[in-house]
Amino acid sequence: MSHQALIATRKGLFELVRGSAGWTVERSSFLGDPVTLTLFDRRDGTLYAALNLGHFGVKLHRRERDAQDWTEIAVPAYPPQPEGQDGDKGDVEWKLRLIWALAAGGAGEPGVLWAGTAPGGLFRSGDRGDSWELVRSLWEVPERREWFGGGYDYPGIHSICVDPHDSRRLLVGISCGGAWITRDGGASWTVSAAGMRAAYMPPEQADVQHIQDPHAIVQCPAAPDVFWCQHHNGIWRTSDGAARWQQLGQDGNGLMPGLVSDFGFAVAAHPRDPGTAWFVPAAADQKRIPVDAALAVTRTRDGGKSFETLRRGLPQEHCYDLVYRHGLAVADDGQTLMMGSTTGGLWVSENGGDDWQAISTTLPPIYAVRFR
Amino acid sequence: MATIVFTQQLRRFTEIPEVVTDAADLRAALEAAFAVNPRLRGYVLDEQGHLRQHVAVFVDGRRIADRVALTDALRADSSVHVLQALSGG
């Protein structure tokens, strides 16, 4: 069982511990300031916290293993934007808007970190965040000019999956820019969203890979060719390293039995079982509340051939909590799940989602939940 | 000499220098402050060197005109206030 969790919220970072009486908040940091994301680097025990100060910009802080205090470190900064070139007309402003993804590099590359940002830049650090460099090879793919915002006015990288068996292989998920893969540590990139379908585009462009809106993409650590995607228009899975994605949850008659909706933001992949994943359904893209105002979690344990909707312990009346893309996490045991909502609800399950308990319903709006 | 006064709100995050400078324009004056505390730059300007969207600067009581190049001129006795815009909830 996992015993510690990090909850990044609109008004601070809360660290939870599992004691004999259950999960409680052990400490808070950055109280009053928006903390958008955290990373626990299990290679060296370091914690990272990304802040998005309303007035003063995006900041990144680091806390060493066993230390009490945070230290502000460098943020990924975009290089000077070229001026006056025809090709740059209409480009986004090269300004860091948000750190939307943080990932540790492989076990054999200590100090390497990856950061996904809005407006669409991927950054690499080789020194634990003391400095960052824009990954130009991805920033300069011609298709980037056709990426666009989903949820924000500009595109953003929200998912970074580092292959645990080969850290040169990365997949990044972009709203709205599809999924991209590198097999050479970021030197070259290939769009890898074949099979996804965008109903929000003109029909002739629905299959274009680099305008897909994957809300979140996660990888099964034990079977790294398996990825799960909660997309704007449904649920997808690949078992061939993202060469081809299969839509799940729809049969010839529409939504499959066991599913209340295939719209949502969050997805969590079981650490060992490539057939198991969890989702948090919402009513629809035009109506972002739980179906029938009753909170539920969707689970599949057979690779998406069937789904079940789990509700025990979750509020079933007048619940308008939405779980964003980083708001659901599964621990290494594959049994402990935690999810946090836009209205400050936080729930835990310690039996794979069958039963849930509220930890709090009065936290600030929750951006990200992570186990450590 | 012109003086620069930063909002006390910034003190929560980083050191706020007291700067008196003979700079002729706003950018030069801010550079004098960033020379004292380099971390302050990222709180006031973005990476393109533009004033952050929700930071307000007044020179002698008037909101500055040029938030991009920061060319607003300073007099020898100008008073510069770097403040946060009103927002939030």
Greatest chain-chain contact: A-B, 17 and 19 residues
Reported by name, the CATH topology of chain B is: Ubiquitin-like (UB roll)
Domain count of chain B: 1
Mean pLDDT of chain A: 95
The dominant shape of chain A is globular
Order of SSEs of chain B, N→C? Answer: EEHHEEE
**What multimeric state do the chains show?**
heterodimer
Question: Under the CATH scheme, which class of chain B?
Answer: Alpha Beta
Fraction in helix of chain B: 10-25%
Strand content of chain B: 15-25%
Let me know the number of strands of chain A: 30
Unreliable parts of chain A: none
CATH architecture of chain B: Roll
Please compute the radius of gyration of chain A using only Cα atoms. 19 Å
Helix/strand/pairing class of chain B, anyone?
Answer: alpha+beta
Q: List the total number of helices of chain B.
A: 2
Distance between the termini of chain B: 38 Å
Main beta-sheet strand count, sense and barrel state of chain A: 4 strands, antiparallel
CATH superfamily of chain B: Beta-grasp domain
